[in-house]
Automatic annotation (TrEMBL):
Record's protein name: Arginine--tRNA ligase
Sorted UniProt keywords: Aminoacyl-tRNA synthetase, ATP-binding, Cytoplasm, Ligase, Nucleotide-binding, Protein biosynthesis
Any Pfam family the entry gives: Arg_tRNA_synt_N
NCBIfam families reported for this sequence: argS
Species lineage: Bacteria, Bacillati, Bacillota, Bacilli, Bacillales
Native species: Robertmurraya kyonggiensis
Amino acid sequence: MNFKNDFVDALFQFLEGHLERNQLLMMIEKPRFQDMGDMAFPCFELAKLYRKSPQSIALEMAEKIEAPIFEKVEAVGGYVNVFLNKREVSQGVVKEVLLQKEEYGTLDLGNEQIVTIDFSSPNIAKPFSMGHLRSTVIGNSLALIAEKYGFRPVRINHLGDWGTQFGKLIVAYKMWGNEETVKENPIKELLKLYVQFHEEAEQNPELNDKGREWFKNLEDGDVEALSLWEWFKEESLQEFSKLYQMLGITFDSFNGEAFYNDKMDRVVEILEEKDLLEESKGAQVVQLHEDLPPCLIKKSDGTTLYATRDLAAAIYRQETYHFAQSLYVVGNEQTLHFKQLFSVLDKMGYSWYAGMVHIPFGMILKDGKKMSTRKGKVVLLEEVIDEAIQLALNDILEKNPRLAAKDEVAHQVGTGAVIFHDLKNYRLNDIEFSLKDMLRFEGETGPYVQYTHARAASLLRKGDYHESEGDLMIDDEAWPVITALMSFPDVIKRAFEGYDPSQIAKFLIELSKAFNKYYASVRILDNEVQKQARLTLVYSVKVVLKEGLRLLGMAAPEEM
Ligand code: ARG
């Protein structure tokens, strides 16, 4: 459903080809207020071209422009405003949703091409941070959106399970750790050790050398180092799995950094063959163009780096999946790293590097500052989600104590609150952490959208809705609902093109508000004659809300 093209055609005819169709399409706006029409065309550019006033051009155009679906065309202060025939458009939109159901807005653009999505990727032996939560929910939604557009997402969790920090942790554990306490509460205890290490290292910098030594031992395959590392990894993975299960998120691969240990020699060989490796202060680097610092490949002690493992991973992914696109949902503090990574691949002659995209996001701040793991300033995500679920359960016990699937719905609503709270923000914006905000169920929140969906479901049950053919007389009061429904395919397109789930989250709020207003102004079930037509609209809203929520990785309970 897109009436812009009707407008473009009419404008094109009037202007006798003075402007291209594409240009015209770009110029069409949405009027600021609904009572000013459904589409507007500004005449200010044309005024220059024709050397007339915008007002007089608008007047002239308003008189001549027409199309069957236009009810009225009006000139207002240099704009041509078009009013659509509400009855016809409403019918058209609702019929379209009815016909396509959850396929509404689907597009087969991808042709089954593979998109690898590297997301979540937390670091072993550290708590799952709020930043990792962002990556997790954004990445999951991007995978679902890509799927809707006919791509095949491969979800990869590039676990941070290798690096100098493990040397430090091993040192800390050997000095102050205790097997029993770590087993009881792995993430908390390991974090404590990690924080203690950094505190003590400030007084005693030799500890850092020890840390490096133990990481070297680990890379050299030392049995004690390896078995401690494996144990830390196992305990952490168990904790992370709990979270993923809570959020309903799955991965196709958990190949983390360590997976590439035996694949890095080959990378170094290729770099050597291509004469890209240079020595710099004992280390091996690849020089990049002027505005990028060189990419460090091997340290002077022979140990490898984050970047080396990412190089190996990129090549492995291309060879394994033959991806068309490869996305990295990682915080914007790693922008330089990804620029360097892509640039090295370019220098290596891999043309497929062009399909790689870093999808950065802003930080979660506490009192305007970044939360730092090193200082132990973290919020434990599992506790946050547990609390959200508990609050949702209390809500149900208060408002709908007879609900059968209480626990399941509480789970869906609690996690929904946390997921939506993140996704409604444009990803590049920093977010100030507020537990209260995350656990809010009213206003522009996930539970509000879920509640609207449940309300629609309940109306359909009470009204004994059945799909009907024939004329659908839709009330004029429903117009804001119709225009919202109509925009859904465009919204998905913007979300897809901008890697931006917030488009969908904002849309869901808009549709929910419009629907709740309609619900308050029209007694949907009271009038037998209009009931089925009205319920058909309710059904369309329900379908679109559910599909929108699904694309964000959220459930849509039928009752709550
Ligand atoms: N583990 C890293 C971190 O927490 C993120 C890894 C992102 N993925 C990648 N391929 N580098 O900062």
